[in-house]
From TrEMBL:
This is SGNH hydrolase-type esterase domain-containing protein. InterPro entries: Ester_Hydrolysis_Enzymes (IPR051532), SGNH_hydro (IPR013830), SGNH_hydro_sf (IPR036514). The lineage of its organism: Bacteria, Bacillati, Actinomycetota, Actinomycetes, Micrococcales. PANTHER family: SGNH HYDROLASE-TYPE ESTERASE DOMAIN-CONTAINING PROTEIN, THIOESTERASE 1/PROTEASE 1/LYSOPHOSPHOLIPASE L1. Residues 18-196 form the SGNH hydrolase-type esterase domain. It holds the Pfam family Lipase_GDSL_2. One of its GO terms (molecular function) is phosphatidylcholine lysophospholipase activity. It comes from Kineosphaera limosa NBRC 100340. Gene3D superfamilies: SGNH hydrolase.
Length: 209
């Protein structure tokens, strides 16, 4: 497992890959504002003065861990990344309780494959993200979003990955209220929600904000 602080301190340009679903891709629901990956990219390449770092967003709307797994090399591996970010679970949780083992297996394989891209001389930093909390009227069951978030938490603990826990952060921030301030509709974050996701990601990675 890579040491992101050490990687940044080395001065070597890094390649960052962000894999995920529509929330990573940043489709539609920002209405022209930056998505969370774009905010992270701005922080890394401009504010931190790392213009030679390359940040690649391979999020695919509607995708799941089982969808990403067979396309791992195309979406992640071929870029030989130094930092791998994986944010999945929102679509996966539509499969309910029967889908939980499949999600754990597929996400686990993606995580291990990401770590295996590195070696002792060039370890990979892996970040796993829980999905955001949702509001009433969603096609997703909030209990399943929570259960699938637990799977991400467990996998991060097992692999030593950095856990970016959006789900817990949103629940704590809204203290039991529905998170409409950060949503464009019951599931997808709006511009403010993406800003919140970016800020938590950056804080968790030790990159400020």
């Amino acid at each position: 497992m890579g040491d992101l602080a050490g990687q940044l301190a080395s001065g070597k340009p890094l390649t960052w890959v962000f894999a995920g679903d529509s929330i990573t891709q940043g489709v539609h629901h920002t209405h022209g504002s930056r998505c969370w990956v774009e905010h992270v990219t701005e922080r890394v390449r401009w504010e931190l003065g790392r213009p030679l770092d390359v940040c690649i967003n391979t999020g695919v709307s509607g995708w799941t861990a089982q969808g990403v797994r067979p396309h791992f090399d195309h979406l992640i591996g071929r870029f030989a990344p130094d930092v791998v970010s994986v944010a999945l679970g929102m679509n996966d949780c539509l499969d309910g309780p029967p889908g939980r083992p499949r999600f754990a297996d597929a996400l686990g394989e993606i995580a291990r494959s990401g770590l295996d891209l590195g070696d002792d001389d060039r370890p990979v930093t892996l970040a796993l993200h829980t999905p955001n909390a949702i509001a009433g009227g969603a096609w997703n069951d909030p209990a399943e979003v929570a259960a699938y978030s637990d799977i991400v938490r467990d996998l991060a603990a097992q692999t030593g990955a950095i856990l970016v826990d959006h789900h817990r952060h949103w629940l704590n921030h809204f203290d039991g209220a529905e998170p409409w301030e950060w949503l464009d509709e019951p599931v997808h974050p709006n511009a403010a929600g993406h800003r919140a996701m970016a800020d938590l990601t950056l804080r968790t990675l030790g990159l400020g904000l």
